[in-house]
Design goal:
The chain has about 375 residues and is α+β, with helices and mostly antiparallel strands. The chain has helices at about 15-30, 70-75, 85-95, 115-135, 195-205, 220-225, 230-240, 260-265, 285-295, 300, 320-330; strands at about 35, 45, 60-65, 100-110, 135-145, 155-165, 180-185, 210, 215-220, 250-255, 270-275, 310-315, 335-340, 355-360, 360-370. It folds into two domains: about 15-170, 60s Ribosomal Protein L30, Chain: A; about 170-370, Phosphoribosyl-aminoimidazole Synthetase, Chain A, domain 2, CATH 3.90.650.10. The chain has eleven helices and 15 strands. Strands 10-12-7-13-11-15-14 form a seven-stranded mixed sheet, with helices on both faces. The protein has a four-stranded mixed sheet with strand order 3-6-4-5, covered by helices on one side. A two-stranded antiparallel sheet has the order 1-2. Belongs to the AIR synthase family.
């Protein structure tokens, strides 16, 4: 008689998946308010949107993203309860850029083998970050892919939906000459540029458990610092400095892949240029370290890593000082980094590494980086 082949012998453990759900269930439930129906485990997540009746012209916003190769660091260190913050930050903070409140999120985890405790750690991190952002985690999927992914390998992705009143929509059409650009500090590398970072540390021969005095911790601990989630802070700022007021928020830019200049250019209208003073902040130690270890050219650093700025707000000049004070009072280090003027306001070259016009398919405004970092 030929050997009997089962799903388990093919490498898929259904019982392990069920155990993972049991381990994560309470963390997921903690993100649920009365709008979430059906609990955990249904075929579809249900969210009561009757609250949208209060909107005159509700616009739905959606975003999807992953964490990239930062998961390789989590897997190498066998620490999995922080990567969820990276996923949530990459997704919900794209939604708040237009002023939308992220309502709910779903996640997807693909792995070579379901280790219930590991999957539960990942989802607990996602749930904790969702709770911080005020976003319900209403569904997800864990898929076991033996033969495609290694036993200890996984990747994560997520999607979120939100809503904004049409009259409160933020974006390029709001930005005006004379507006001020405010930087909000990143918590570290966040989740972009890890292919460069990993190449640099591998080339240098540095181990993840290496104690680095400039960082005050091991290299691996620094590389796993979770992405700062800005959603609650940005939404609070937009409510406090209403778009229709004299002291107003006009837009946000989430600094992810492409770096500061490219992402800021996406939210500027044609004809306007944001001038950014590098001297307004000092590069955090991890960025200096990557630069020196890999002899990475400054233009490459600036278009790959966030260099200490994870989110940007564009506000009216009248709001600038109060907005900075407001963010700092919330525990989010922030400062004025530049201003917006007409693109014809200077005679400097409109090309070169210090000048970016339009980015990621958006034929918008421009960003000019001036001077040297403090």
């Amino acid at each position: 008689m030929s050997e009997s082949i089962t799903y388990a012998s093919a490498g898929v453990d259904v019982e392990a998946g069920d155990k993972a759900v049991e381990l994560m269930k309470e963390a997921v439930k903690a993100t649920h308010g009365p709008q979430v129906l059906g609990g955990v485990g249904g075929f579809a997540g249900l969210y009561d949107v009757s609250q949208l009746l209060k909107y005159r012209e509700p616009l739905l916003a959606t975003s999807t993203d992953g964490v990239g190769t930062k998961v390789a660091i989590a897997q190498a260190m066998d620490i999995h309860d922080t990567i969820g913050y990276d996923l949530v930050g990459m997704v919900v903070d794209d939604i708040v850029v237009v002023g939308a409140e992220p309502l709910y999120m779903t996640d997807y985890i693909a792995c070579g083998k379901v280790v219930p405790e590991r999957i539960a750690d990942i989802v607990r991190g996602i749930a904790a970050a969702c709770e911080q952002a005020g976003t319900a985690l209403i569904g997800g999927e864990t898929a076991e892919h033996p033969g495609l992914l290694g036993e200890h390998e996984y990747d994560v992705a997520g999607a979120a939906s939100g809503v904004v009143e049409k009259s409160k929509l933020l974006g390029p059409e709001r930005v005006r000459e004379g507006d001020v650009v405010i930087a909000m500090a990143s918590s570290g590398l966040h989740s972009n540029g890890y292919s460069l970072v990993r190449r640099v540390i591998n080339h240098a021969g540095w181990a993840l458990d290496r104690q680095v005095s400039e960082l005050g911790r091991t290299l691996g601990e620094e590389l796993l610092v979770p992405t700062r989630v800005y959603a609650a802070d940005c939404l609070d700022l937009a409510r406090t400095f209403d778009v229709d007021a004299e002291k107003a928020v006009h837009g946000f830019s989430h600094v992810t892949g492409g770096g500061l200049a490219a992402n800021l250019a996406r939210v500027l209208p044609q004809g306007l240029t944001a001038t950014i003073e590098r001297s307004s902040w000092e590069l955090p130690a991890i960025f200096k370290l990557i630069s020196e270890l890999g002899n990475v050219p400054l233009p490459d650093l600036e278009r790959t890593l966030n260099l200490g700025v994870g989110m940007v707000a564009i506000v009216s000049a009248q709001a600038a000082d109060d907005a900075v004070a407001h963010l700092n009072e919330r525990g989010l280090p922030s400062w004025v980094m530049g201003s917006v003027q007409a693109s014809a306001a200077d005679n400097l070259p409109k090309d070169g590494p210090d000048y970016v016009q339009g980015a990621k398919g958006v034929d918008g405004g421009a960003v000019r980086l001036l001077g040297a970092y403090a």
